[in-house]
What we know:
The structure is a homodimer of 774-residue chains. Chain A has 774 residues and is α+β, with helices and mostly antiparallel strands.
Amino acid sequence: MRKYLLILITLSPFYLYAQQRPADLVYPLLDAANSRWFYFSSACRPFGMVNLFPDTNIGGEWDSGYRYAQDTILGFTHIHEWQLAGVSIMPVTFTDASLKSVVQNKGSHFSHKHETIKPGYHAVLLDRYSIRAELTASDRVGFHRYQFPTAGSAGVVFELGNHLGPSDILRGGFRQISDYEIQGYMVNGPTMRRPKECPVYFSTIFDKKIKSIVLYHDGILTHDIKQWDGTNGKILVILEDAANKPVLLKTGISFTSEAGAARNRTLEISHWDFDAIVKQADARWNELLSRIIIEGGTLQQQQRFYTDLWRSIQGRRIISDADGKYTDLTGKEKVIRQLPVGKDGKPQFNMYNSDAFWGAQWTLNTLWQLVYPEIAQEFCNSFLEYYKNGGLIPRGPSGGNDTFVMTGASSTPFFVSAWQKGIRGFDIKLAYEGLRKNHMPGGIMSKSGYEHNTMMGGGVQVYIEKGYVPYPLTQKQYGQHEDGAGMTLEYAYQDWTLAQLAKALHKENDYHYFLKRSTNYKNLYNPASRFIQPKDSLGKWKEPFDPLLYDNGYVEGNAAQFTWFAPHDLPGLFQLMGGNDTATARLNKQFELSAWHRFCNEHPEENPKFVSNKRTWLNYSNQPSMQVAYIFNYTGKPWLTQYWSREVVNQVFSGLSPYTGYSGEEDQGLMGTLSVLMKMGIFQMTGGCEEDPYYEIGSPLFDAVTIQLNPAFYPGKAFRIEAQHNSSMNRYIQSAILNNKPLSSFRFRHTDIVKGGSLILNMGDAPNHNWGIE
Amino acid sequence: MRKYLLILITLSPFYLYAQQRPADLVYPLLDAANSRWFYFSSACRPFGMVNLFPDTNIGGEWDSGYRYAQDTILGFTHIHEWQLAGVSIMPVTFTDASLKSVVQNKGSHFSHKHETIKPGYHAVLLDRYSIRAELTASDRVGFHRYQFPTAGSAGVVFELGNHLGPSDILRGGFRQISDYEIQGYMVNGPTMRRPKECPVYFSTIFDKKIKSIVLYHDGILTHDIKQWDGTNGKILVILEDAANKPVLLKTGISFTSEAGAARNRTLEISHWDFDAIVKQADARWNELLSRIIIEGGTLQQQQRFYTDLWRSIQGRRIISDADGKYTDLTGKEKVIRQLPVGKDGKPQFNMYNSDAFWGAQWTLNTLWQLVYPEIAQEFCNSFLEYYKNGGLIPRGPSGGNDTFVMTGASSTPFFVSAWQKGIRGFDIKLAYEGLRKNHMPGGIMSKSGYEHNTMMGGGVQVYIEKGYVPYPLTQKQYGQHEDGAGMTLEYAYQDWTLAQLAKALHKENDYHYFLKRSTNYKNLYNPASRFIQPKDSLGKWKEPFDPLLYDNGYVEGNAAQFTWFAPHDLPGLFQLMGGNDTATARLNKQFELSAWHRFCNEHPEENPKFVSNKRTWLNYSNQPSMQVAYIFNYTGKPWLTQYWSREVVNQVFSGLSPYTGYSGEEDQGLMGTLSVLMKMGIFQMTGGCEEDPYYEIGSPLFDAVTIQLNPAFYPGKAFRIEAQHNSSMNRYIQSAILNNKPLSSFRFRHTDIVKGGSLILNMGDAPNHNWGIE
């Protein structure tokens, strides 16, 4: 009888529930009411090419995919990716009378009551057909199990055309290969962001015999068809002997060819044991998630943490085949290339689709390079492959070509951080060449967002000449986000990171050259307003000045937010502002002013328009100002970092419902990773790009966090961050012990972590004004 | 150019906007997406009988009235009240061809873009008819101005039947009185809560001639009708000369008679100056809201504060006529009675409808008695009138009779608090008699929720015999909320408040009798579990025990929440628990565990079902545990009160959107008032029922709050609470000065306030463990 009280009083709330495996703590429905096309995830593996789940909305890139609040499933789609979609299929039952109407409009109501979702698995009951459908996946194969009802004929509809997520599906086709197999393709039409066609191939095998295939095209049904190619068609594959039995099917996917899809299928899943693949997927997720073990916190806090971590290792997805073949679309013609193969006969790395690393300096750089160094290394190699093919280290490649999404050379800090942390499994000479090219005219800093055909909108030439990117840049607009002040700030920071690499590689001239460029941000500091402001090509400040005006010179932000974007030279920035104390007061006031809207400029679960025109002093809904809570560490007031970073965690990254999550776009792991880092209490202001990079300490949410280090990269076994006497109120660090020695600084070094050890923080309810000052 | 920075750095954020009048800061759309029937308010006065606004849903008591997310206006309804509805009208345009379909289904789409809402005023464009409609009100009259388009005939539909909000409208009728006037009635059918019929009368005058009236009944239109009585009818009043001109109409409302409605109309608005009434309504709201003047905080914080305050002075509404006539429904027959009239010929007070004062001890008791003593006094007089008529001081009267909503003698603390604060304008002898009766068999403590016909479910007889109300009480259920543990806790606290009044009135025997009863809560403290638990009539604890199980012995709460319900004897409670430190640790842990769901057991803007079965350790969505943040003051840890009360304000009472607000039901000013008090930083644990009552200090949200005292009641002019160096982080009190003398206690006395003066708090970012200890 006393147990509840004991629980309440004596023990950590952690013990309110049996200790659970990290994979079991993931809550896949987080933010699912606000999904964009590729946000959701269930039947897939980490970075898997296949990201299979039911769509409730297939129209458009935003507000599509699995939208929790909608009640109709339109199909199970295998590719949900940055600018890519494909292979949407749906089991149906029908009679002769209903066949046509079912094929025309196959959507089925469903209820969340009859749905089970976990990493690697999705089960749902299709009410209209009384079909229980289960989905799982390997990296490149979607594995389906359908329990059909006793009544009606059973079949599976394959969409070969129409529109799907971001793409018009221009055309498609299929052929029946055997009594049990079909294969085919569909072509993602060009989008403004991905201007080249991108075909997706599939190869499907059933465990029940195909009875016949019906084509639906142009309003007409054609029975007993064996192959077809055309526009806007769909087929119904009718199965024999399916009633009241489980029907299994496996669909291999490839971007190279139908043969590639078939090979992926047979290489990855050679058997029919559905449950084994569910288990495998779960084990793989759990393995990666278990690299970080947390103790303490409430059940919900633990669930949210592992959900955030789960988000950080997906989104960006494999596009190469299991045998290492991939499609290179960087040139005029599509070319199939082969990745280098190791002694084991397997490709040494995969090729990836990826939204830009815009904001990765404060997120993925820290998490991947430390906890998943093999992933960081793989992405470096993948990006170098693009460089070899197309001549540029990319900024958000999709389907084998760059989309040039966002601005700047956002891959530079990622590479530099990897190198500085001792990740060596990529060609650094080639990398430096490519990165350097990106920072010069003709490189990616010449390109604005989605600027595919010209090298103008990035303005790096003017930046080199004048020391800033003017706003407006020219009369003409070449791409998106041609916001000179924002670009200048990014370039200056990225120049600094490249300078660090130049230094590490003993390229003294380059080091000095890029270091000098890295001070360019100062050219846009207006001493009159004391904000960073856009300046036109004649050197005139943009008038009238409005610190809260969104865009208009700032890339998805405003002056209030972007003025803090000099992470590589905070002392310099503070000096411009009039000293550390003025900087502290300004930023603290901005936090106070942002508290009412919970530090975000949108909250989809509330009224999306409520913060009108995104006029906010800070914004944790997006990347441009996500470092701000950690700036106080550098103004000499680390307790303000501790206070506000915890406040942001509480207010922004605490919800656990389909209606809340990231208060904007999660952006393929960026916001999830930010949440993970803030909850661990570590951060890297410079993106971890200096020699033996610093980690700065915030205010951990949990009693303890243990990072299991990857032995192939780091000598230590584990690093443990302990926050003693931690609580919502006890968010202030009183003292710290790093690897058994007192630590008085707010930061420590990469080598302090990777040799293994611990950071023990003593937390209290009051700021210790003497701790953490350098 | 420097102004933005100056704003940001030097000045309070208050100056980011011109100082606004309190009435202009009210945001009427708060929580409007989650409205229940009587929640919303626009065209009405404080406590006004008329609460006129457009309905978007008329079906049911919950989820009805003005629901922000719905797009169709179904009518402008004058009565939105606790268990009452009535007089729904709608301007329409029509042609001969469309007349019937318009009358049948008159709903019109509208858009929030073409809508203006402020205290006392509502304007909206009816898209279907292109009619711009404006609404305002005096206490008992709805005043409408419609701008009709040029095309079509113009008319106004009156609903005389059907269903409206909580009520079936049993029957209705009208008669045309003159070329410009009609009057009529409709009868609210009985509900489970209000079992007697309650008619509502109206008297409408137009400023345009009535051309003819069409009746719609039973699917048939009858033209040129002058009067009618029946079931489920509606009429269309067709107006002459209305096209493209403003049409005005005034509708007087009464619960006594059509003549009463006409009299209310002519007494309150004798002219046709619509704008003047809008101004008057606004001035009245502003006058009451200006009793509290705040400084500092963000614009949103100020808006939310005045919105909360605005909620605190409405909801409960006048039911008596302007001349003092009212309907007494306490007996078998309806009787029209007359309120006492003063020398000015006006009634000395009004009669009120009111949800129960269940929870008022921690909300209205403090706010009204201090800031609006004239309102507190009026409610005392109104409740005594019910006592004179029906023999019981009521618990949630509606339409002239008691509903017996909720449990206990919740009016007792309200009366006692008024008396102890020096409010003398009611008959204390009569009041004591009525209150005492309520605490004995045959009084309201004999009745459970909505127990209209028996005196069993309240269990006070058993409570007196055994020292607790058993759960279950008997085999039979007599009403709602027969939750013995919750009732015992309430009764014990209410007994203590009655004992205080007995003491003040020198009734020594009663004092000791009720004081002894007030320790009854201890009888349900189970030393084994250390929680308050339900016990059956044989003295056996209910098994199995589950501290989070909702209801089942607790009234809208659970053991975790209700165990803290001994506000009158916290030292006694702490002693049972094992001392102050154990109590502190337990409650602090409950707060920590409640942080993830933001201290509420529902969040309508998210997934309402997310906190499953309301299993929460604390709950700020409802009344039973709303005192908890202030308990730490009494455990000797006032800084925990400061921390958690601010945390609750931040997380629960900060939103300002139609989708957020009170995370549950606002309950006619209860939750709004709690928010006001917490933001002012004052609270009364005992409901202010001891002699010269205490106010305890929390952590004010604003830099300063000034209460303008009512000179008819209190000698001082104003009392000012200043929080110097206040900020989100600086939520801890370092030191305090009360009326120019250092204050080391966490509390002070009523006389310290009402003589006028100030409380100056010096705030800081760390707890001062030496301040506030007694």
